[in-house]
Queue: 2 jobs
Job 1
Amino acid sequence: MKILVLNSGSSSQKACLYEVGATLPEHPPACLWEGKIEFGGDTAAITVKNSHALVEREQVRIVSREDVVKRMLSTLVDGKTRALASLSEIDAVGHRVVHGGPHFAEPVVITPEVRSAIAGVLPLAPLHIPAALEGMEIVENILGAVPQVAVFDTGFYRRLPPPAAVYPGPYEWFESGIHRYGFHGISHEYCAKRAAQLLGSNPASLKLVTCHLGNGCSLSAIHGGHCVDTTMGFTPLDGLMMGTRSGAVDPGILTFLMRQHQLDGEQIDQILNHKSGLLGISGVSSDMREILVATQQGHERAKLAFDIFVHRLQTAIGGMVAVLGGIDALAFTAGVGENSPDVRAAACAPMGFLGLKLDNELNRRPSLDADISTADSGVRVLVIRAEEDWAIAAECWQLTRVFPSVSAAG
């Protein structure tokens, strides 16, 4: 069975093609083909490669996001990276959908009604939902009636305990569906399972703090394989400082801006989602790599941005450890988590009181899916490759096992 996965991010679009046999493999298989788009200004960078390590790169002008995504998908069957003789070989398509709202927790086959319900939560994830819906439409235009499956980032948090899920506003908020949904759940759930494998431990016995650090950032406290707290909330705007998102701020700031500067909801939303975080503080970039370069060059605001990012990360890790009543392992994943030894070292620096000891050499040159703590560390520190795409593909495969007619339709 060939499964195409579309993972629509706030500033990127990823896609992977997997082939899955009669049983799911224990570890993620290599992609037959993978592509990535990084959107920036009025151009987009497309990178695609196939299982033979043939790579193509292209810089294109953005006419529309849809045109760029179609261009990337065309390389599945054209050019040196082609992996299929025909797009009709694709049996199912899985989509990462950031917000399931009050309706969806489990993966679901996409119907017009499902798409309409997903569109209804657009105000809760304005950076992500439009891209996911657009991806569904593009697939329908290109592949016709191929089964499509939505896998929800919020699903992992469906059992979040009420003290963590309910906001301390009027109880009517909760009754009307305003509560902590949590995000990056596909990544956190996979990370927790992979951590248990790496440690050779029963997931039911582990206390984990997983750190998904990319353009969007979140932490989850996971006990016995279930999330008991997380930093993102009703929307993906809450919690840690991010690339362009503020994370948690005093809500009084927002009412002050509304009253004193006559800003409306749209303007505030634009500031918090697009003009804050690393970019807003540094004035340089939303990319941690560029922040670190600027810091080394003596750029004071870039250094401040890094210091705020680390401070909030340390504070959140400490809070998660307190909720868990201890910690067995701290895991880093996603773009910054996997690739920035500076962030990992700074985050771990004050954690010696927990018995955590980072191996500086391993941290500087880590292998993915590896332990970078010292042999005598009381807390294991793991760097785990983000495998959201494979987790989505596995959910697609399992759903077709439950509903064979879905597979037959493809």
Note: The mean pLDDT is 92.
Job 2
Amino acid sequence: MSVRALSSLLSSDLAIDLGTANTCVYASGKGIVVHEPSIVAINTVNGRVEAVGEDAKEMLGRTPGHIVVIKPMKHGVIADFEVTEKMLTYFIKKALKRNVWVRPRIVIGVPSGITEVEKRAVKDSAYRAKASEVHLVQEAMAAAIGAGLPVTEPGGNMIVDIGGGTTDIAVISLAGIVYSKAVRVAGNEMDNAITQYLKKEHNLLIGERTAEQIKIEIGSAFPLDERTTMEVKGRHLIQGRPKTVTVSDEEIREALAETVNVIVDAVRVALERTPPELSADIGDRGIVMTGGGSLLKNFDRRLREETGLPVAIADDPLSSVALGAGKMLSDFILLRKVSID
């Protein structure tokens, strides 16, 4: 076995995309090893963690009184310090498998609008979860690197990263961020909009998981080529009993219109504030979309219509941030240039 192969086997460095909806962990030499919901189920009687990630998501809306299901991340930053620490510890252990005595170096992606206090909270949580070194990088930069954009070249690259809690928009050139904006409207807001719409138009109360399912199956940002419908089960608000209604893609598009418009407007503002030379580059190269929200049907077409620019979705939009942060684990010169510690 070569020295390089051996060192990558023994290396325990991790890159983490600590997202509002999902946490994605990249391990040096192994690639993506964890991709699970950022959810923790806690027993309120003894304070014990009952489940984390996928198992905790299964419990959403189905727990007995003494178990609470917590989403410790809000808008890409830590809302519940203690629970985030438990969640991070769990994911780090899972990523390192048996190497529990190892203290990894960790690169974490954070939203561009993060405050000093929030930065401190992310770092402290990682150190408490047994990290030896922690480096923070902006999610938009990590997503651009993960999507394969030539960020170190003197040319404009535009990335739109639509996560669960925030949409990060950035224009990047020479490994630096020329313009960045984090809008606290993204995938979770879309789910919320669907829930409110069904409540108002159909008197139907649905849970978070159902709203997400509707968004994935028939949600869209631009008219679909073929009309589709879906049966939705929930509780009737007035009668109080289970009820099934049929909703169309048109209705859900109407429900999502406001949220989608906020993101489209933010992209428009970013284009207006980009220096002319870089604008010309973006005109040639187009816009790259990443994050789970970019998978909303026809979102790329909608942006194309609105901006008149080429729009592409990254090859692996859900893992772009973790993959980009992962590339920095082996490229310390680049990490030094882009880290925001």
Note: The chain has three domains: 3-141+320-338, 155-185+260-313, 187-255.
